[in-house]
Design goal:
The complex is a heterodimer. By secondary structure, chain A is mainly β. Chain A has no helices and 11 strands. In chain A, a hairpin with a 6-residue loop joins strand 4 and strand 5. The termini of chain B are far apart. The chains are: A mainly beta, B mainly beta.
């Protein structure tokens, strides 16, 4: 099975940067995903890491260290619309995805 | 519009009743999944199907069954609903590389 940990809540100011950490312990690893979920909506895909290092996509970046079982999602130039839950998910060797409980980010003006 | 359609959007159900949540996709994805989402627990995998004609158990399969008669449809059945099955259910599909999940809009189920 998978054990995936991420903080429950984070608050930041509009225009600032927020880093959401995710640690995992897995019986196999075949990639790590980040999803965004606005309240009452379905999750949507943000990023994917399978090799160590940083993946940048506009204002969002995701980092992976497989040896440490660690990832982070970096949100830059925060906007009010970035207020949402961010879900860390790990794919195992059978290509099944397990999710962390999610981090609720609140952006304040 | 291509994507995943779930029905019903919301349902209140008496305990002991049978219920089927429907899921249809038009993206021709091979893999499909059912997750439930509960506050503080995140998304948990119930059942999955890697291709039409095959299914597998996820993390929390008890009390649920699925079938995959064709590529497009993946219904989830609760044979005899219990209050602990009150949740938001998401159907998802994936294909290709990196194989990210595409989610339906969810079905909110309340069992009384």
């Amino acid at each position: 099975g998978q054990n995936i940990d991420q903080p429950t809540e984070m608050t930041a100011t509009e225009g600032a940067i927020v880093q959401i950490n995710c640690t995992y312990q897995t019986s196999g690893f075949n990639g790590l995903f980040w999803y965004q979920q606005h309240a009452g909506e379905a999750p949507t895909f943000l990023s994917y890491n399978v090799l160590d290092g940083l993946e940048e996509k506009g204002r969002f970046s995701s980092f992976l260290s497989r040896s440490k079982g660690y990832s982070y999602l970096l949100l830059k130039e925060l906007q009010m619309k970035d207020s949402a839950s961010y879900l860390c998910a790990v794919r195992d060797d059978n290509y099944k995805l397990s999710f962390g409980a999610g981090t609720t980010v609140t952006v304040r003006a | 519009i291509a994507g995943i359609t779930q029905a019903p959007t919301s349902q209140i159900l008496a305990a002991g009743r049978r219920m089927t949540l429907r899921c249809t996709q038009d993206m021709r994805h091979n893999a499909m999944y059912w997750y439930r989402q509960d506050l503080g627990l995140g998304l948990r995998l119930i059942h999955y199907s890697n291709t039409a004609g095959t299914t597998g158990k996820g993390e929390v399969p008890d009390g649920y069954s699925v079938s995959r008669a064709n590529t497009d449809d993946f219904p989830l059945t609760l044979a005899s609903a219990v209050p602990s099955q009150t949740s938001v259910y998401f159907c998802a599909s994936s294909a290709g590389d990196p194989g990210e999940l595409f989610f339906g809009e969810g079905s909110r189920l309340t069992v009384l």
